[in-house]
Amino acid sequence: MITAIVLIEAEVSRIPEVAAELADLDGVDEVYSVTGGVDLIAMVRVPSYEDLAPVISDRINKVTGVTGTDTHLAFRTYSKHDLEAGFDLGLDG
Asked: Which domains does the chain have, with CATH numbers?
């Protein structure tokens, strides 16, 4: 699974609508409204690198109100949640 973190700039007046529309797109797992230099962050997860362009270029960038994107590809995932799940084998005592 390929994970891309997409930093999104949006028209301020449309941030809630843009976020909702992005969250409904195939390939977009989560959308966060954030503080800082961008307005939204979308977590894109697709089976292969070839599947990134249709999601980012053909879908995300065409949402009305999106004014710019900056995409970062994840090499590895480090997550406390994932580590805890790995140790939870369902064994008692």
From this structure: 2-87 (3.30.70.920)
Residues 33-59 have a mean pLDDT of 96
What is the bridge-based pairing of β-strands 66-73 and 2-10?
Answer: antiparallel
The mean pLDDT value of the chain amounts to 90
Residue whose tokens read 């989560």: 30
pLDDT of residue 10: 98
At 77 the pLDDT is: 82
Instruction: Say what the pTM is.
Output: 0.83
What is 21-83 written as a DSSP string?
A: HHHTSTTEEEEEE-SSS-SEEEEEEESSGGGHHHHHTTTGGGSTTEEEEEEEE-S----HHHH
